[in-house]
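## retry 2 of 3
previous attempt timed out at serialization; input unchanged, resubmitting
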Amino acid sequence: MRTSLFLAVALGTSACSGPDDAGTSAGSSSGTSGEPVSTGSGSTAGVTTTGEPLSTGDASEAGTSGAVTSTGAGESSDGESSGGESSTGEPLVCPPAALAAGDHTIQVLHAGLKRSALVHIPASADLAARTPLVLNFHGLTSNPEQQVFFSGMNAKADAEGFILVYPAGVQSSWNAGACCGAAIDQNIDDVGFVRALVAQLSATLCIDERRIYATGMSNGGFMSHRLACEAADLFAAVAPVSAVNGMDTCTPSRPVPVMMFNGTLDPLVAYNGGGLFKSAQQTFDDWGVRDLCGDAPKPGKSNGAASCLQHDLCDADVSVVFCTFEGMGHCWPGQAFCPLGAASTDLSANDEMWEFFSQHALP
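## retry succeeded, writing output
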């Protein structure tokens, strides 16, 4: 039987304590459950929040297009604007921005399921220029709204000007190898969904195709590892939190920069491994081998009970970093709130991973 990884996140004075609760928190979108949608001919099309078809013009390159509901203020910009170059050196033309600064819910049809994501576009983002994109995946039984609160990453996006997206898993879970829940039991194509989501975002916003990154908590961190294994052509770097690599096989198409954050007293993803889960150290060592790192791990940044090890002499100038937090539980480092075990604010995962992401782009 597959191991089930449970993540309960308190919001204010309330607590979400199980899969049935996770999808019903205030503000969650109708696509969170991944309910099947009939498209008649089998093609994909946009949907409104009520599930009604919506014509959105040309589909994105992945064959998906989606409706957008917005809670942010302001109108979307018109016209085309250029910024940056493609990987071939050709000038890139930005699509007209379909979303303005603010918070939005978008929906994507993929593999017959209606899926959704929250999009945070900071006022500091230049929507007329190529902008980095970070995908932040929630844990098992959680949802995008809870991950916004739990990770506290919106403030970092506001400060640095990157677009931040919180995808929603099917029945609050991600198919990430050894972990977890309904998504793995139903063999949900989450890698395909992520590719379709990024394609849709790239068709409606000016995304820097060389600077797309993934992070996530718990089951969402496992998903980040899987994307490094299977979508290294799309993601420039990943930074899983409170997770290990749950894939039986992992053969990325190129060396992948990876930054890990793990607590030694994590009650769910044991630091030293067990059951179906590798140890955090083994996951770090495995990435060093995959990335053909020729150096022994050396000490990196440290503060208080937090200390990092890193490989710097890896193939294609990538690096692999492993940050250990002595005494920390199943937490997002830098956040004072932790639902399972002791929190740690000795290093901020948001600060450290953005610095790491900023050093790495797709070749």
